[in-house]
Amino acid sequence: MRVDLRLIPVFSLAFMIGYQIDDWLNLPLIKYYPNLGTFSWGWVKNPLGHNTIGWFGWIGWGLIAAVIVTALYALIPRSVTDRFSWSWSWIVPVLTACFALYIVITGWWLHAPG
Amino acid sequence: MGMLAQATQSITFVPDLPLSYHVVYSVLITVHLLLAITLLGALTHQSLALLWPARYVAPAAGGEAVAPPLTSAYRAVRVTLYTNVVIALYLITALAGAFLYGPYRLSVLPFFYGHGLKLFGGIFELKEHFVVIGLALLPVYWLLWKKVPLTEQVRFRTAVTAILAAFVWYSFLVGHVLNNLKGFGT
Asked: B15-23: long-range contacts at Cβ-Cβ below 8 A with a sequence spacing of 24 or more?
């Protein structure tokens, strides 16, 4: 099987954006409860639940988003996609990291309980 | 529902865990640390070689070859050989980190909350995000090092490698410092 190399950057960038948006929305695909050692599907209301981990679920949605976006991108003719710049390969990770910092500042340091 | 009720402990609650639990996770965190150090070394080599390329030191006419200074020698290694190793190390280190994340949330984060240090929770969460952004960046990193000729897209290869190195440095320092703050196996 031959992998179309032009799809690789799209998969990467869609994965990181999908992950970060899902983290922002706090809608993990699965949740992990470390003190129980068990998972649950989707978002389960847990009022005092600081001991729930959404990280694996955000990664899950990020991967699903990446697969969908990459599949759609594959439908675009090469004559169009070849014009896209490599600049996105560093601009998107930097912007995503800045967005992660924004989420942490607003979620953990400004509005967090405790 | 009963299970969820158990999960909803106070945010400062640190469960009383058996010694075997601490021993197992202390070993795993040491392995995680050693893998991270190796990854850090490889990525730092690559980044510096690209950001600050070593110049070839030609021998004087009729003279013997001059040994380059240490800083040049550090940057003059064949960093293209590191690419697959970096990817493998990144994946294994992240996997070890994923196994350690549960114990961190169980015993380290509540400890910080209990001591009014919620700042550290955010610092660690940023590490989680950087690790995933770096994970997502690995295919682009592989593409730039393995499929694009080394004389092309040099700026983008440099930027992607440096970003990956920055994420790994941040993750290493945060993980190391926070674990030390809590105390080894306590």
From this structure: B15/A35, B15/B106, B15/B107, B17/B106, B17/B107, B21/B103, B22/B185, B22/B186, B23/B185
List chain A residues with CB under 8 Å of B139: 8-9, 11-12
pLDDT in tens, chain B (186 residues): 444 444 455 656 666 677 777 788 889 999 999 999 999 999 998 999 888 876 655 556 666 666 666 666 666 677 788 999 999 999 999 999 999 998 888 888 888 877 878 888 889 999 999 999 999 999 999 999 999 888 888 899 999 999 999 999 999 999 988 888 876 555
Flag if B132 and A19 touch (Cβ within 8 Å).
yes
Domain ranges of chain B: 19-52+67-182
Identify the residue among A45, A61, A104, A105 best suited for mutation to test binding to B, counting B beta carbons within 10 A and taking the highest: A104
How many Cβ atoms are within 10 Å of A14's Cβ, its own excluded? Answer: 23
